[in-house]
Amino acid sequence: MNTRAGKVRKGIGKGNLAARLLAAVPANYALSSLAAACVARALAHGLAVSAPEASMAATLLSFAIFAVLALAAFGMRSVVRLWLWMLVSGAVMGGYLWFSLTTGGRL
Amino acid sequence: MALVHTWTGLVLGWLLFAMFATGTSAYFQDEITRWMQPEVTGTADPVASAQGAVRFLQRTAPDASFWFLTLPNGRSATTQAFWYPGTGTSGQTEAVLDESGREVTVRQTNGGYFLYRFHFDLHYLPVLWARYLVGIAAMFMLVAILSGVITHKKIFVDFFMLRFGKGQRSWLDAHNVTAVLALPFHLMITFTGLVTLAAMYMPWGILANYASPDTFQSAVFGDPPAAERSGRNVPLADLAPLMRKASAQWGGREVGVVRINNPGDETATIALTRGPGEAMGSRGEVMVFDGTSGRQTGGSLPQGAALKTESVMIGLHSGRFAQIALRWLYFLSGLAGTAMVGTGLVLWTVKRRQRLPDPERPHFGFRLVEKLNIATIAGLGCAIPSYFLANRLLPTGMAARADWEIHTMFLVWLGVLIWALLRPAARAWLEALRLAALLFAAVPLVNAFTTSRGLPVSLMRGDWLFVAFDMVMLSLAAAFALAAARLAARQRKASAGRTMGREKAVRA
């Protein structure tokens, strides 16, 4: 038990901790916002849910996404892996959002 | 994960403690207001109250851009009126009115409503800043709860291990018990709390589909944004038939909120919202009328799954639908939440004290946390009863009286902070806890001497609201006194232990 705790503590060094905090708060908020926007667009345009419903469903979901990402930021073993995941999913969602907004427009 | 729990818990724990305590009191905000307006008795009819309020506002703020009325329900007897003044009217923007539209001028107070607003708007701060701060705290709380469950893997087993009088172990047990006992409540209240201000914290889901949040609001509530005043005066339609029509439409449920845009102008609109206590969903149905002809022009759309979920989440958070038994359960769960945050804060210091290089002279960070714990936990314990005492002791006709009730509360709170900073921590804890007990105990006493509704009289008359209020004050006084007594006993034991240790050292 002790050795495992020791390893985890060693795993989160100072630079490591800063990278995780950055992932857990500002990057997390950006990613959750992107996710909320993408879900709102996908529901309204892809699945033909009414716009108010789609926006509200996405908003409610975004808080759960934020909480889970915050935990993942400290729970994932490799900080490099963590950032890679966040950057890739951010780029995919950003791309979809850009495409959806330029082709669909807003109300 | 333990790291996340410890530090997120500490950084925002002080704010969360105040939010939990005042939010808990808000489940009884109407009852607190009634206690703070002892001269107002009986019940009020919502329709007559709305008409009375309109008469008052036609005199006081005829050219306001809007009037906003929160009507009395089964629990309250007064109308809360807000308005945005037009040019040339006085600076007044709110009033508490009785059924006939007269301002309640004796013993002006913000009552339980102030504690409710403090819960998410704080005080002396711009409202927007306060709400962002509160939102950040709530988000941290959500993360602290989830990481807390992961940290205490044996949390459910530990729940059955409440060990009293064992120092750190007892604080940890108390923290776990208050957390687990009401864990579903904590999780629900935190998530739904975020949802109440979701459009502010997370506007991106709305902005992805709407160029302006106003378009979304109008689509949901069927209430188009207010037009400019045209300048042509047309008298306002009578509210009574409109309110009856709305009630009939909603299966007999009453109107709770009235909003009138551009009153007295030909562009006036009247929006009636169903009372939040009438159903679990708090986003009540809305009916919108032309303000001059009284013709219905719009209303809220039937809600789909997401909007209904949001409405029920906000309803669950504010508990306005709850009848008396459930309301008490809400109150007790809120107290458990307050205790969970409080014990968590104390645990932080207890756990670290043993690891200090010299427990007699802790480093600055440790001392700061300890003093802020005193100022928050015992300090708020002194501040809240001071608010109630100020209500009874400030002259009833005093100018800006309602504000001074609030200032009194914060002055006492500041006083405890300064006291905690100046005194040694161990003494300050004891003194502040004792003061809190004394102040809570003083509330029923002062009430008995300054009003005709003291505990003996209210018991004989069956005035249960006043009986319950006084009993809660006495219970809180007992809780603080017990905490002080246990702390004093522990300190005596500890100092006896130290003296013995020193004697042994001298002899050796």
Task: Characterise the protein shown here.
The complex is a heterodimer of chains A (107) and B (508). By secondary structure, chain A is mainly α. Chain A contains four helices and no strands. Chain A has helices at 2-11, 14-46, 51-75, 79-104. In chain A, α2 packs antiparallel against α3 and α2 runs parallel beside α4. Chain B has three domains: 1-37 and 111-217 and 327-355, no CATH class; 46-108 and 223-300, no CATH class; 362-508, no CATH class. Chain B is globular. The interface between A and B is large, with 37 and 35 residues.
Fraction of helical residues of chain A = over 70%
Number of strands of chain B: 7
| Beta-strand percent range of chain A | under 5%
Provide the succession of SSEs of chain A.
HHHH
Number of domains of chain A: 1
Uncertain spans of chain B: none
Query: Which strand order does the major sheet of chain B show?
Result: 3-2-1-4-5-6-7
Helix-and-strand structural type of chain B: alpha+beta
End-to-end CA span of chain A: 56 Å
Helix segment count of chain A?
A: 4
> How is the main sheet of chain B built?
7 strands, antiparallel
Largest interface: A-B, 37 and 35 residues
Features:
heterodimer; A: 107 residues; mainly alpha; 4 helices; 88% helix; 0% strand; disordered N terminus; B: 508 residues; alpha+beta; 3 domains; 7-stranded antiparallel sheet; 7 strands; 63% helix
Brief description of this entry?
The complex is a heterodimer of chains A (107) and B (508). Chain A has 107 residues and is mainly α. In chain A, 88% of the residues lie in helices and 0% in strands.
